[in-house]
Give the backbone structure.
Amino acid sequence: ERGFDHTEIEPAWQDEWDEADVFRIPDDAEDPAYVLAMFPYTSGNLHMGHVRNYTITDAYARFERLRGEDVLHPMGWDSFGLPAENAAEERDTNPRDWTMDCIDSMTEQFKSMGFGYDWEREITTCDPDYYRWNQWLFKRFREEGLVERQASELNWCPSCETVLADEQVEGEDEVCWRCETPIDTREMDQWFLTITDYAEELFEALDELDGWPNNVREMQRNWIGKQEGASVAFEIPGYGEVDIFTTRLDTIYGATYFSLAPGHPVAREIADDNDEVAEYIEMAEAAEEDDLDVTSGVFTGEYAINPATGEEIPVYVADYVLTDIGTGALYAVPAHDDRDHEFATAHDIPIQQVVEPTEDAGVDPEDIDVQEAAYTEDGVLVNSGEFDGLTSEEARERFVEEFDGEARTEYNLRDWGISRQRYWGTPIPMIHCDDCGYVEVPDEDLPVELPEFVQTTGNPLDAAEEWKSVDCPDCGGPAHRETDTMDTFVDSSWYFLRFLSPDLDDAPFDTERADDWMPVDQYVGGIEHAVMHLLYARFFTKVLDDVDLLDGVREPFENLTNQGMVLGEDGNKMSKSGDNGVSPARIVEEYGADTARLFIMEAAQPEKEFAWSAEGVQSASDFLQSLYTVASEYAAGDVSTGDDGTIAEYVDREIAATAAKATEEYEDFRFNHALQAVRELVSLLRRYRDVTAVDPDTFEDGLVTATKLLAPVAPHVGEEIWEELGGEGLLAEAGWPESEAPTDYDLERRLIEDTREDVRDIVETVGIEDPDAITLGVAPAWKHTVADVARDADNVVPAVMQNENLQQYGEDA
Ligand code: ANZ
Ligand code: ZN
């Protein structure tokens, strides 16, 4: 019985790699492939989602390294944040100790998976050597005018007692992303980074991010919410001119009412003399976001004059008009806007059509009844005076001038509130003095380190009296420190730059090295970061370039992959706490890291979800054992050898073709296809050995090639086999197989594959269970189809090799 014992070989090879510094990347490397996985939050435990994320990235990094690239593949810890504080409270310890323990145990887990990181570059965001640069950067942002104090209504989690960014509020019932408590709102003064200054570039540059999945780009587009339109003034007699924002200026002739947001200054002015309006505003402002529907609103008794028609239209205050979007006022066109239609129907407001479909729209204008439902498409103007017959697009352009409007672009994106009233984060480097107001902490006094942790129900920094009280850097008078800490998304907005020069102590990162090494070539992480993390990191990169800390790098991540979810065997999301969670540690213990890695990578393409399968794990394990066994039997002289001509030639071509195919699939991030090809090669080798005495050169070349192609995914077993076969040095440094496919080979292979596809199609239509078995000639009815493939003389041998049952047909042919 020859097998390997993963509990012995895996730790041993991990040590060998460390000793040989396989994963170290020297500072003077010219332009390494930068392969990065989103660094983990230090929860203490790796779950399967992590394991998948890091396996994908590690396999790709190893692939690039084996191909001879310098590879930067670092790892660090996203280690600030509320959970540490909560855990510390639960366990009666402090967030730092808890976090450090988590890092220790996660490091162990990483190592046991065989992930190859350059640990010399490890960074930890809760380390003062890291967060001092958050503070330093905050000051540079402030110098650029990108930091503001803004009073605003904020999402407040009553359980975490902290402000949440919009992105941290989840689901329709608006719950806290960490603890799932329904959120409240509160009005407070906060520190904001004015990301809106970059809205246009953040939006437009998405078009060029070809290496990003379309859905992520689309999510960012929606989040930024760019709307091109115009503003036009409507006169409300007694109250002056009120600007509206519209994306549909072409519909201005169809405006049948005018609407103000409850927070609009003119609405408040009207409310001064109108109790009904005052009551409505009060009610609307007290209401939770989803309490009121689109029809909620009140007539003010006032009228606005439509500059296009000169007509007076009634003015409403309505909750569906948002105070901080556009100008907080709009003219409403029920015939062409769904919300306006609903509102008008409820309030008995006339509906006037002004756009009808163009002739080539494929819709009969007669079929449009705007009394029934709004027609929201562009079209041709009707009932629009002298402008009838213009297209919507022409009208929009024309009307801006005609009605003294102004082209205007609006964004849904809001500034980024970074203040958190919690302890475990980067202290904001500001001091408040009664005389001088807010004063920056001088650079030489950075970092502002966190004081000892104390347990309180509120913000522990508020309770740290000694820490809080300082002299004002400007006037020397008594002052106190800002007690808000930064949103942890600040940490992750530039960490990928710190990896380049993690020990630098006079700058956050080395500008020249960033020039050489950035952007990240391949970034891998969860789709849950499609908006916040990935948008903030793009924002930071642009600002850093604008303040000359970067030199022309405007996007941080050239290629992005979002790994799909790992589901439980039941097909439900594998939860960390639920019963369907499979513990990575247990799998590694029982089967070894290579098996876990191979199973995960074979299960699906990185972007696709897949369900955990004990059977799949077993199959991965069996495969590795059997490859190892074939190799060690061969090494021990247990495989009979001899020269055998045609078959060796065929096997040689299969080996070359497999290397070519696998290489291409690795490059395209279709690891499962690459691995499938390797499996096919290995079973070919086994059949070769079973049917005849093998050509030793060919056979050994086959084993070596399979092992090398497998090395990114199953590196430990790979080393073991490499050693058995007498390979020199470490497999991790042994290079990548030649990947030139024989030129005449592709065509033949495609022919075989196409035919298989055809057969599979037929089989699926007829509904026979195992198409592969049939393709390979088991079901008599289909044999002739497969035999067609074998008819080509050159393919007789391949066909025979595919399946013994075909021998007959090959010979017949
Ligand atoms: C007149 C109009 C006619 C509009 C029409 C639309 C259709 P979208 O549709 O998402 O691009 N709007 C303007 N300010 C608003 C505010 N503060 N709160 C809520 N809605 C507001 O958004 C642009 C449209 O949203 C604008 O164009 C405006 O209604 C409305 F047939 O103006 B429109
Ligand atoms: Zn002062």
Observations:
- Residues 433, 435-436, 472, 474-475, 477, 479 surround zinc ion (ligand 2) (CB under 6 Å).
- The radius of gyration is 33 Å.
- The first helix runs from residue 6 to 19.
